[in-house]
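Translate structure to sequence.
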């Protein structure tokens, strides 16, 4: 038998990946130290690198409208059409940022099952190429000021393809890594995707004015070649794993537990807030403080600090317990919302900006801590069920299903946040009612966290979740 190869590098003669056409790997044993050290780590890392790149582009496309809408609104002072020829109201702009988040959240569960169905490499190629659709449609729609608002909403909805990429990418990488290294790998994968939000909000303002003038169509055109590159890289360098099997029963079993839905609720407040605030922040800077220059130049900072603080949430949870870190995050998020409320009332832009930076940092920390809580909760339930090896394996399987549910439900927060701002502005002429709502909503989440996982007598309080 010929010596197996991976990306042109010879493998030890006693390691056989049983590769076949289509870059399918039939033999994959990451839990075997010999296999992992000989070839597994290298193959897994290669797939992780190109998975991060594809997911990064997906996240960028998902939030593309968050920066484009800044140029679609009417002049906040005169109500006249803006430089792109559009005159959308504030609530219309916020709806355009919300719709991609809602569609992306909905797509997360089917995208998760696409990996076992089509193969991780194959689905990465498909999902990357699908990004051409929202990019091309955006370039067409914003190039003509006569495009109807309904059409803009439908085009914005297709950006949800980028949100689904997160779920398939995380599912795919989880199959490559052994349990002892999954946390590290999935953390890198998630962070690489999240940073795409900050990148798109920093880069696209420069792209649309490059060479003078304003060309919003470039926002979509810019990401088409990057999506193609991501697909080509996946075609050339990634692999499919035969042993990656769909387990709908795990999702069904995970859904039976109240803790799954409690964590989904909490994840709305962390990841949902991160995506929702990232989508709405530039629009709020432009319309609340009439500063489109700041929106386009500095609006990306929120998404950046939120992305970078996510690993910190995981690290703090390892030391102090996920529930404790999550509770502190919600407490500080409530403070941030009320400080933002005060800054709107006093028209204090620096205080408004600082309060949102606090919110973004805490959403990132909360993202890491809530994700850390899920396996700990299901491990404790396995111990309660008997603690045998079979019990622990069963609840570990259910934890994987629960993570899919939590991820999908939590992402709907990205839809709720801009809509709340839009409705508040439409009904009251300002965003202050939405900030009141968020402040008390985070207090409610703090109370749920304490009651479920921290109070004396709660089963999970002994493990710190």
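Result:
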């Amino acid at each position: 038998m010929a010596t197996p190869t991976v990306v042109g590098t010879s493998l030890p003669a006693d390691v056989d990946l049983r590769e076949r056409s289509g870059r399918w790997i039939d033999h994959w044993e990451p839990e075997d130290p010999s296999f992992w050290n000989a070839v597994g780590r290298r193959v897994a890392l290669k797939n992780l690198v190109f998975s991060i790149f594809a997911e990064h582009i997906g996240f960028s496309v998902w939030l593309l409208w968050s920066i484009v809408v800044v140029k679609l609104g009417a002049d906040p002072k005169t109500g006249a059409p803006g430089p792109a020829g559009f005159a959308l109201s504030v609530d219309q702009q916020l709806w355009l940022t919300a719709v991609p988040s809602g569609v992306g959240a909905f797509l997360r569960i089917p995208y998760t099952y696409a990996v076992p169905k089509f193969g991780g490499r194959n689905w990465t190629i498909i999902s990357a190429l699908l990004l051409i659709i929202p990019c091309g449609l955006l370039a067409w729609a914003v190039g003509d000021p006569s495009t109807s608002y309904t059409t803009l909403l439908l085009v914005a909805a297709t950006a949800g393809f980028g949100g689904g990429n997160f779920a398939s990418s995380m599912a795919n990488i989880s199959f490559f890594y052994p349990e002892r290294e999954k946390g590290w790998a999935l953390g890198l994968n998630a962070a690489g995707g999240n940073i795409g939000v900050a990148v798109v909000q920093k880069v696209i303002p420069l792209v649309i004015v490059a060479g003078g003038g304003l060309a919003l169509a470039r926002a979509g055109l810019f990401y088409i070649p990057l999506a193609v590159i991501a697909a080509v890289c996946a075609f050339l360098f990634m692999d499919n794993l035969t042993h990656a099997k769909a387990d709908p029963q795990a999702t069904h079993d995970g859904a039976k537990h109240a803790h799954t839905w409690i964590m989904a609720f909490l994840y709305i407040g962390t990841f949902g807030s991160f995506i929702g605030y990232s989508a709405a922040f530039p629009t709020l800077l432009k319309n609340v403080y009439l500063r489109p220059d700041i929106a386009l130049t500095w609006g990306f900072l929120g998404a950046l600090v939120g992305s970078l603080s996510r690993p910190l949430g995981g690290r703090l949870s390892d030391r102090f317990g996920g529930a404790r870190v999550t509770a502190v995050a919600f407490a500080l998020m409530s403070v941030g919302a009320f400080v933002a409320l005060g800054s709107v009332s006093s028209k204090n832009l620096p205080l408004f900006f600082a309060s949102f930076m606090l919110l973004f940092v805490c959403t990132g920390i909360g993202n890491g801590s809530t994700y850390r809580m899920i396996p700990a909760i299901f491990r404790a339930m396995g111990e309660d069920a008997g603690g045998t090896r079979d019990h622990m394996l069963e609840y570990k399987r259910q934890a994987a299903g629960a993570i899919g549910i939590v991820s999908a439900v939590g992402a709907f927060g990205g839809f709720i946040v801009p809509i709340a701002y839009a409705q508040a502005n439409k009904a009251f002429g300002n965003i202050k009612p939405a900030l009141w709502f968020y402040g008390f909503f985070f207090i409610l989440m703090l109370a749920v966290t304490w009651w479920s996982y921290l109070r004396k007598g709660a089963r999970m309080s002994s493990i710190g979740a």
